[in-house]
Amino acid sequence: MPLTLTVFAASPDEGRGLARDMGVRWALEEAGLAYDVRTLSFAAMKQPAHRVRQPFGQIPTYEEDGLILFESGAIILHIAQHHAGLLPDDPDGSARAIAWLFAALSTVEPPIIARSMAGFTIRDKPWYGEQMALLDDQLRVRLTDLSRQLGDAPWLEQAFSAGDLMMIVVLRRLAGTGLLEEHPNLAAYVARGEARPAFQRAFAAQHALFVAGREAN
Amino acid sequence: MPLTLTVFAASPDEGRGLARDMGVRWALEEAGLAYDVRTLSFAAMKQPAHRVRQPFGQIPTYEEDGLILFESGAIILHIAQHHAGLLPDDPDGSARAIAWLFAALSTVEPPIIARSMAGFTIRDKPWYGEQMALLDDQLRVRLTDLSRQLGDAPWLEQAFSAGDLMMIVVLRRLAGTGLLEEHPNLAAYVARGEARPAFQRAFAAQHALFVAGREAN
């Protein structure tokens, strides 16, 4: 059986590559691995049949010869540790790249998610503006630290790795907010990732799926 | 040089083992590894000398023979992948345990952090109660899913792993909120982790450091 991912049947991001399968698709393309997808509706994601694969009723999942994995970070790490192309060969460099993968998910993404959650949970509340300004400031602290660390380098460590992949996937969620553009080196970093052929193949695949789903309805 | 962690000189949790070094200390104890600590003030954490180790100016960091790591998840994974005691021997079981480690940090912890951040950023705002109720409800969705998955099992997979360790570290941040107690199996799961001798040694070490620091001032 080929390697299979579950993905949204109709991604709420409308094909912009912001759903959590995007990073996994990108990692698979960097590693040169073919894969199939199985699409799920929002209702199907919350059913017991999918919760066996994904206890929180989310996408993506990854299936390979009887192994079922969830959490895009874990899936990307699994691909990176079993195939060339996403981690340096030296053990210390590899550990550093993995630290950046965790930093993307555990330090940089949470304030980005908090901000986007507020965008749809409290948009109609009178305190929306003040709360959003607080959340923006919390996020700016992280972005400033990340920008300082990256400096003029192309990638976070010596060469592109799964850590950059995850960080760029996370930063792409800021598209349209203007916050990324406050740090031109971070905006250029994201653009550098998006220019990679593997990114472009992954982006095209999820976009084509979204368009096909829309045309079928 | 012995393995060395950086930790808070005066932990804001007052020795309750809620700072991010707790999970790393626990993992080191499970693996039977000795370590030294270097304490840092809040001011020192934000200085360039520490940012070389930790770009976001936080603790803990991990130093071992020239390798410097940050992010507690990455450090715990590094320990788990290099020493016995924290991951199953079979590769698929190991990958599943690592998925839980990511789930703890990327799916369960963010709504816990969002809630505790609100506790000190908006406590004096008129909308505090309503916003907190929203954040509590978002967190309850995750806790309900986790509780359903755990069921009557002692651990998330067949045996205690780094995934349980990380999840229990994350859930301990809910102490005093009453939210954990809404799911007796999760409260028992945390207590089961806290009863492990390795947890108790790690807890005692960080607590003793806090007490010594307080007495010195």
UniProtKB/TrEMBL annotation, chains A, B:
Family annotation (SUPFAM superfamilies): GST C-terminal domain-like, Thioredoxin-like
Alphabetical list of CDD domains matching this protein: GST_C_8, GST_N_GTT1_like
Protein name as catalogued: Glutathione S-transferase family protein
InterPro entries the UniProt entry points to: Glutathione-S-Trfase_C_sf, Glutathione_S-Trfase, Glutathione_S-Trfase_N, Thioredoxin-like_sf
Positions of the GST N-terminal domain: 1-87
